[in-house]
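Can't paste images in this forum, so I'm doing it all in text. The chain is below; anyone willing to post the predicted C-alpha cells underneath?
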Amino acid sequence: MKVGIYFRTAHPVATAIAAGFSVHEVHHREPTLYRGEVESFDLVVVNGWRSGKRVAKSYEAAGVPVLVVDFGYLKRVNAPDEYMQGHWQVGLGGLNRIPSFACPSDRFDALGLEITKAGGNPQGNVLVCGQVPGDAAHGMDAHSLREWLREKMREYPDAIYRPHPRGGIAIPGHANNHQPLADALAAARLIVTYNSNVGHDALLAGVPVVCGPGAAYDDLAGESLPSIEARREYFSRVAYGQWTAEEMASGEAQAFWLNHLVPGIGFDGLRDSRDVRSGPDGVLRVSADEPLQAAHDGAEKVQPIADQLVDGLDDLDAEQLRALAKERGVKVHARAGADKIREALRAAS
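Text version of the structure:
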C-alpha cells in the first residue's frame, strides 16, 4: 500500500506516522507546495484542515481515503512542547470526526478521567464560550463568529461570555467570565459554544452543551444532560479518535485506522453505513492484492521515538533546521550554522 503524508518538513508527528507504516511504501510531501496533483496513493494523511483541506478534497474526489490529523480532544496537544506527550485527533475526511461505530472503553478508561453524573449549578448562568476567529475547526471570521455569539446571547438573556483564552474576540455590553474553566463550569447550568473542545470538558463535568452544527459532540447537544451511559459510549469513541505520537510510531494507531476506521468496520465486525471512505465506484482505494492489515507485525521493528525524530535532519537546510529548533523549544545561537543546529537538535532528543 502506498501512503502519502502531507505534513510540514520534518514534523515529528509525520515521522511517527511514517514509522508506524513501516511495512508500507511511504512518501512525504510538503503541503505548501501542493498544486492539485493526485498521485497514486492508496491512503493520504494530512496535517490539519487549513493546509490539508485542498489536498484532502482533491484525493477524496479521486476516491482516495484521507486521514486528517490535528490537536486532540482529551489530554490533548495544545502547543509544540506537547507534541510528543499529548493526543492528536485522527479523523476520516475532516476535523472532529470520531469513529461512528461503538468502541471499547479501554482507551478512555486509561485516561483516568471521570464522567460526572450531574454537575454545574441548575440555578446558575448560561456560559457562552468564544473561540478564535479563523480557526479551521469552524471557518468563521471575527464578524461571523461575533454574530453567532450575539445571537446565542439574545437567546439566553442571562448569558455570561467567556472569551477564548488564546486570542478570542470581545463582545461589548456583556458580562465576562475569566475564572478557571473548572470553576466556570461548576457555576453554569448550560454551556453554549459553536464547536470548541470546552464542550467535551462540560460533558465530562456533567453540564449540558448547546453547540453549532458539526461539533464532534453534536449528537449529545441540548439543554438536557445525556445519561452517563450515553456519555461513556461517546467518550469511548472519542478515545479511539485520538492517538499519541508514540502510539503512531509503534503502529498501534495504524492498525486501528486500517482495520476499522478507514473501511468503517466496527469492533463487532459489522460495516457502518458511511460512504465517505469509498470512491465514486464504491471501492476503497487499497491495493487489490493487499488486504487491510495491521501496520506491522511487531513494535520491536520500530526505532525508539527519540531516534526517529532526528532522522532526516541532514536533508534540511539551515533555515528549515532553525524553524524546527524553534518549534521544539531548542535554543540555538542566532548565527549558528546548519551543522551546529543539527547537533543541538540531536542532543535535545
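Residues 65 and 82 are 28 Å apart (CA to CA). Strands lie at 2-6, 25-29, 43-47, 66-71, 88-92, 125-129, 160-162, 188-192, 209-210, 242-243.
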